Amino acid sequence: MSRVFVIAEAGVNHNGDxxxxxxxxxxxxxxxxxxVKFQTFQADSLVCRTAKKAYYQLxxxxxxxxxxxxxxxxxxxxxxxxxxxxxxxKKNIMFLSTPFDLESIKLLSELGMQIYKIPSGxxxxxxxxxxxxxxxxxxxxSTGMSSMDxxxxxxxxxxxxxxxDITLLHCNTQYPTPIxxxxxxxxxxxxxxxxxSVGYSDHTQxxxxxxxxxxxxxxxxxxxxxxxxxxxxxxxxASLEPHELKQMIQGIRKIEAALGNGIKQISESxxxxxxxxxxxxxxxxxxxxGALFTKENLTTKRPGNGINPMKWDxxxxxxxxxxxxxxxxxxx
Length: 332
What we know:
The protein is an alpha/beta fold. It is 36% helix and 16% strand. The chain is built from 13 helices and 10 strands. An 8-stranded parallel sheet has the order 3-2-1-8-7-6-5-4. A two-stranded antiparallel ribbon has the order 9-10. Helix 7 (126-133) crosses helix 8 (148-160) and helix 10 (208-215) packs parallel to helix 11 (242-259).
């Protein structure tokens, strides 16, 4: 199995503060993530000024504030992007950011983005999908809130407009996602029906579900994280804290190592157990030379360095080539 690509989703958990954003990069790097991802958007292009907040956002932010006002405070400027890209380079971790509008796609292109992450909310945005595809870069597409038909339609648009390398992320967009709504097997189904690589973008509480997704074949795992769940902002409560992020990534690495190559064979670590644990055909009683081997005078016991008991029928009825004491391994 190839290495799982782990994206530590900083999102908007920087709260508009470049210092916090850099601390998030440090945390993701120390935890062993492959990439740290932010969100690139212009509130004026993303949301109407009167748009309401999601239910989870109402619970974690000022209820009197509009979605526009909330997002306006969380924008990253072009200069901030450049600083964060430079900081990622110093910390040896890939910088990623999700564009939420056409202007943001252009900005990230100018900044040399090599992987474009499409959020679930844009899966039905035709002009957006076309513009992303025209970048001719690797695409990771989240599929929350969508049906299989919508996923296939988005993939067709991307391919028709020049995209070649596409990974689909199964996702549920509720923060936090109820365990009963995770439906990890839908990830497997997407792979079967599209033939594309798949992964999982997680919004559940805890670290178990991303690890389980790895066991089911996810090639990409994305998970929100924060410096402190008690910070103000829409996504902190449903994010992992630094120690949890590290534990999740360690769990993913263990699972991918444990999955192996799929070939059923004796492993290196257990080869020495074969002789100790398996059995051989041995004398059940004293047997004189020339006597026939029977079910009564033979049995099987450890160790396994004699005749394999699978050859039992071949041995029965043959003559002993020497005298045998009870428990002595039969030789032919």
